[in-house]
Design a protein that fits this description.
The protein has 12 helices and 8 strands. With 293 residues, it is α/β, with parallel strands linked by helices. Helix 2 crosses helix 3, helix 5 crosses helix 8 and helix 8 packs parallel to helix 9. The termini are far apart. InterPro entries: AB_hydrolase_1, AB_hydrolase_fold, Epox_hydrolase-like.
Length: 293
């Protein structure tokens, strides 16, 4: 894969060996370590509009999740290599390799699910946790964005059905996902990163990885969260929930739902679609700086 135009020129590049192969990360800044994890269809560039400003106060690490961006995509069947527990292990190894044992974590979408799992499994690692546009368990929280929910279910179907259909027009599938999630219904929030997103999407091995991510989400990941809920396990670190005012219902609010999962949680809806940091970077940055400081 050739390099996209560099939208984060001040950020150093790192290749870090893990059980999944090499994980790609970028870093910049100094101060308390802060890890940012992207969502589906994106790469570390999802944070390009806020990461440079966060790097003025924190040591910011951006990481491509396994199977995404420039990170390796391990062999997997039935979601086995793409459980959020395994992906959380990648994040721990990346941060250790960059000298951080404890850190704050901000995750969006799939990255938020990795962050949630990491914080539940390794509470001593996570100083503060921000989760963007996810519910702990999707059931009972309203339909959110129906197209996104339907796409997730489709991608979790048994291989190779979704892989075969996506590969017929991978770029079209990706762009439709981005459009349907954005409040504007357009690709405008992603313009400068679109080439990088498309390049990181249109490979059979990666398309399989994305589907394995969702298969894990419907299988092992959900089972682990249900077990945590049954055991009364909660997030013990300060937690921030931010969500799309467009896609999540007001009653019950997502904050009320997260109070059942976290001992100390605050949050708010942001006037945008699913891609908070790309659609409303100023509002997201303000919320994160107030929470992380």
């Amino acid at each position: 894969m050739s390099a996209p135009s560099d939208l984060l020129p001040a950020f150093a590049s790192h290749w870090i060996d893990t059980d999944a192969g090499r994980i790609f990360a970028r870093s910049a800044g100094s101060g308390e370590p802060l890890l940012l994890l992207h969502g589906f269809g994106e790469t570390h560039l999802a944070w390009r509009k806020i990461a440079p400003r966060l790097a003025q106060r924190f040591r910011v690490v951006l990481m491509d999740l396994r199977g995404y961006g420039w990170s390796d995509a391990p062999e997997s069947e039935n979601g086995a290599a793409f459980t959020k527990r395994a992906m959380a292990g990648d994040a721990v190894k990346v941060m250790e390799a960059l000298g951080a044992i404890q850190f704050a974590l901000v995750g969006h979408d799939r990255g938020a699910r990795v962050g949630l799992r990491l914080a539940l499994d390794h509470p001593g690692r996570v100083r503060k946790l921000a989760l963007l546009d996810i519910a702990p368990l999707e059931e009972g929280i309203g339909d959110g964005n129906l197209a996104r929910v339907g796409r997730a279910k489709f991608m979790s179907f048994e291989a190779p059905r979704p892989e075969t259909l996506i590969a017929q027009d991978a770029q079209g599938f990706l762009f439709d996902a981005l459009r349907s999630g954005a409040k504007s219904g357009t690709l405008d929030p992603f313009t400068e990163a679109l080439d990088a997103y498309a390049q990181a999407f249109d490979e059979p091995r990666r398309i399989h990885a994305f589907c394995e991510d969702y298969r894990a989400g419907e299988g092992a990941d959900k089972e682990a969260l249900l077990a945590d809920k049954a055991a009364g396990k909660k997030l013990i670190m300060p937690t921030l929930a931010l969500w799309s005012a467009v896609h999540f219902p007001e009653n019950p609010s997502l904050l009320e739902v997260w109070r059942d999962w976290a001992e100390n949680v605050s949050g708010e809806a942001i006037d945008c679609g699913h891609y908070l940091a790309e659609e409303a970077p100023d509002a997201v940055l303000a919320a994160l700086e107030a929470f992380l400081s």
